[in-house]
Amino acid sequence: PGYLCPRCQQSVPSLRWDRSKMSAAQALKKGWLYYEAGQRFLEVQYLTGGLIEPEVPGRVSLDEALQKNTVDARTAQKLRDINTYSKYLTCPKTKLKISYKDAMD
Question: InterPro entries, per this entry (predicted)?
C-alpha cells in the first residue's frame, strides 16, 4: 500500500507498513489488488517482455514465475490465452474496445 499516516496504520494492525516492494502477482495473491486490475498489470507485463519481480533484475518469464510459484497455473493459462484479455482500450480509428495486445499489433 501507499503511504498512510501513523494513525491510519494503527487502525489496521494486521498489515505490515514497512514499504516493502512486491510484484503485481504477489499483490494479487495477497488480495491487495483487485483481480481485474492485477490481471491487467500482468497482461501488460507479459506482453512487454515478462513479469516484473522487484528482487530480480530484468524480467521473469511466465514459466519461471510458475516454477517459483509467483503465479498459479490458472493465471498463467489466462495470460497465455489471448482470447481472455480484457478489452479496456478504445481504438482511435474504429472506436471499438480492444485489448492491450490488439493495440500493440
Answer: Plakin, Plakin_repeat_sf, Plectin_repeat
